[in-house]
Specification:
This protein has 158 residues and is mainly beta. The chain has one domain: Jelly Rolls. It is 3% helix and 41% strand. The protein contains one helix and 13 strands, in the order E-E-E-E-E-E-E-E-E-E-E-E-E-H. Strands 1-2-3-10-5-8 form a six-stranded antiparallel sheet, with no helix packed on it. Strand 1 (31-32) and strand 2 form a beta hairpin. The longest helix is centred in the C-terminal third of the chain and has 4 residues, at 152-155. The protein starts with 30 loop residues before the first strand and ends with a helix.
Length: 158
């Protein structure tokens, strides 16, 4: 098996992402998200996209939010998720996929008694975001929380 290639100087933040090439799970570095949102494990990132896993416990999840300029794909690996895209809700399990185009309000909640594990892709990453949501040296997530606004506040709460 060949060694991982050297990381280019303009690559993603060194302590969050694996080097280009093949990465084993133990090489990936998880990081905590805000309370109630669980833990993320970045798998790959570039200015074009972020790929990673999210794990959160029973009752936790991401409340209603949207990404103004980013599409998001969520693939359910383990557990049962109440997934919302707009005002449409579905119960999702392993192998199911949720897609939220840019600007579309969406949410996902763990509705089981076991941890949920998701694989998500966010694209493209946005330049000049706050440090909190930066995924590469210059790019990151752009997320607008609308969970306290109507009609979202009346639909579901974590």
């Amino acid at each position: 098996m060949s060694e991982l290639s050297e990381e280019p100087e303009n690559s993603v933040t060194k302590d969050l992402y694996a080097k280009p090439g093949i990465s084993k799970g133990e090489q990936l570095v998880p990081f905590a998200l805000p309370p109630g949102m669980g833990t993320a494990v970045p798998i790959a990132a570039s200015p074009d996209r972020y790929c990673g896993t999210l794990t959160f416990g029973p009752g936790d999840g991401f409340g209603f939010h949207y990404h103004p300029r980013q599409d998001e794909v969520v693939y359910i690996i383990e557990g049962t998720v109440e997934g919302w895209v707009g005002q449409d809700c579905s119960i999702l399990g392993p192998g199911d996929v949720m897609f939220a185009p840019a600007g579309t309000v969406h949410a996902n909640f763990n509705v089981s008694q076991q941890p949920v594990k998701l694989f998500n892709i966010l694209s493209p990453l946005i330049p000049d975001v706050s440090e909190e949501w930066r995924m590469t040296e210059t790019h990151g997530w752009e997320m607008v929380d609308v969970s306290s606004e109507q009609p979202w506040a009346s639909l579901r709460r974590i």
